Task: inverse folding
């Protein structure tokens, strides 16, 4: 039997569907617990619904980016496995590298050589084995880190808020810096032309995102335009993408 | 009263759900591998698998520990359980949890803030899985029909998102954010130039870890200075 027929067969769809459904079940359990707790600590249904709507709108763009990354996995390891790996513990870069490591251990280069049964098995096992480390450590340590954080902040609410706000700014400045520093060091290192061009474009998109967001949120706040507050992020991202693509 | 409910009922409940689903999730993740073995008799040779696992864990092993630690101050305990089972943390879970907090007008790091972040993250997981499911069913043929211009523009979505989010959260602490952008730029430039190549896989984890904890340190020292002056 052709190996891609195995990879795209019904048994594999079922086998991969189970972990995907499991991820959704976990999310529903947490959401239910949080919703009930929200009511008890005095959050209104209206606020919680607003929060969920905002998150749903924010999710759509990045989900499509992940989907376009899934294309390469669909071709190499088949639909079901690519689908499962990016719904569970996944990130496109990690999955492709892990799959490649697995197949190369049996002498198959992912994407160029013809996939064999042995290589498919290796890719699947390697992706799973190398990804469960994250879940094991995160599951083991989550409540322990919470205790450490409380001890360090001495339970002071102001300190906890400062830690969380500063950490958020830390994460986003890291992401921004990774995009705006790349053109400079790839220029110094004389990277090839297409790589440099794409690094400059990413930098431009990042700066445009910041500038447009700044303008829109200022206008929305000063004139108190409700719908603009809700949609400013979406408008910003679309605007920055379109302008960068046209440059 | 409310504080007691959060600490005595909600937190233990979160930990219980998190531990059970987390460890169970690890087992469930192996289903495709088991089906390959049981239905098709495809079982990798242990020696080859060990080789692949060793190269994989030397590439990613540090991340298994560093990422949960780096992201914990942002996502909290419930977020940690969810984010690492579902993946796509910096590009989706954190932006969604943070935007949910903005919409509900709650502060990060508070009880309300963490409840809202949990709701936001759960919704983003459901949307993410739905989009991927539609994409996987439609398959490569339909997806490959996307015009090239759209594929190129998609590359710019995440940089634009990060720029916008930095502004969204940075305007409340402008000085702090300006310092952090400069620090982060220097750190990433140094990583890109290979200054930290002696640390295994540094380019994958050092930037986020460094920025999160430098930012927390800056935040706490500003706070204690302000308290002294008050």
Result:
């Amino acid at each position: 039997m052709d190996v891609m027929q195995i990879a795209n067969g019904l048994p594999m769809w079922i086998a991969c569907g189970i972990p995907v459904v499991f991820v959704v079940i976990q999310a529903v359990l947490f959401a239910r617990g949080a919703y009930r707790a929200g009511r008890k600590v005095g959050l209104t249904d209206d606020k919680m619904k607003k929060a969920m709507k905002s998150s749903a709108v924010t999710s759509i763009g990045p989900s499509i980016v992940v989907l376009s990354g899934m294309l390469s996995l669909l071709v190499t390891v088949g639909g079901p496995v690519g689908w499962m790996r990016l719904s569970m513990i996944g990130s496109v870069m990690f999955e492709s590298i892990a799959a490649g490591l697995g197949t190369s251990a049996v002498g198959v280069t992912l994407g160029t050589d013809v996939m064999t049964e042995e290589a498919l098995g290796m890719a699947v096992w390697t992706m799973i084995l190398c990804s469960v480390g994250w879940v094991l450590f995160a599951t083991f340590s989550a409540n322990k880190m919470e205790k450490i954080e409380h001890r360090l902040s001495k339970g002071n609410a102001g300190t906890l808020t400062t830690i969380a706000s500063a950490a958020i700014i830390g994460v986003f400045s890291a992401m921004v810096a990774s995009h705006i520093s790349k053109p400079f060091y790839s220029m110094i290192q004389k990277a090839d032309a297409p790589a440099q061009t794409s690094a400059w474009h990413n930098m431009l998109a990042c700066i445009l995102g910041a500038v447009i967001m700044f303008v829109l949120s200022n206008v929305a706040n000063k004139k108190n335009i409700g719908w603009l507050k809700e949609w400013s992020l979406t408008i910003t991202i679309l605007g920055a993408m379109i302008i960068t693509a046209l440059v | 009263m409310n504080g007691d409910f959060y600490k005595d009922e909600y937190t233990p409940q979160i930990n219980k759900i998190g531990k059970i689903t987390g460890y169970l999730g690890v087992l469930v993740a192996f289903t495709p591998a088991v089906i390959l073995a049981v239905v098709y008799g495809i079982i990798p040779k242990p020696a080859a698998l060990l080789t692949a696992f060793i190269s994989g864990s030397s590439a990613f092993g540090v991340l298994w520990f560093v990422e949960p630690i780096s992201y914990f101050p942002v996502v909290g305990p419930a977020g940690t359980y969810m984010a690492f089972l579902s993946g796509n943390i910096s590009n989706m879970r954190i932006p969604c949890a943070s935007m949910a907090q903005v919409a509900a007008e709650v502060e990060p790091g508070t009880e309300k803030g963490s409840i809202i972040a949990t709701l936001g993250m759960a919704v983003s997981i459901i949307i993410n899985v739905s989009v991927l499911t539609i994409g996987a069913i439609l398959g490569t043929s339909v997806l490959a029909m996307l015009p090239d211009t759209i594929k190129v523009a998609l590359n710019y979505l995440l940089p634009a998102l990060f720029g916008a989010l930095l502004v969204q959260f940075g305007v409340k602490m402008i000085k702090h954010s300006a310092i952090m952008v400069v620090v982060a730029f220097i750190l990433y430039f140094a990583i890109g130039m290979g200054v930290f190549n002696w640390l295994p896989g540094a380019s994958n984890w050092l930037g986020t870890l460094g920025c999160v904890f430098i930012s927390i340190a800056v935040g706490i020292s500003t706070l204690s200075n302000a308290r002294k002056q008050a």
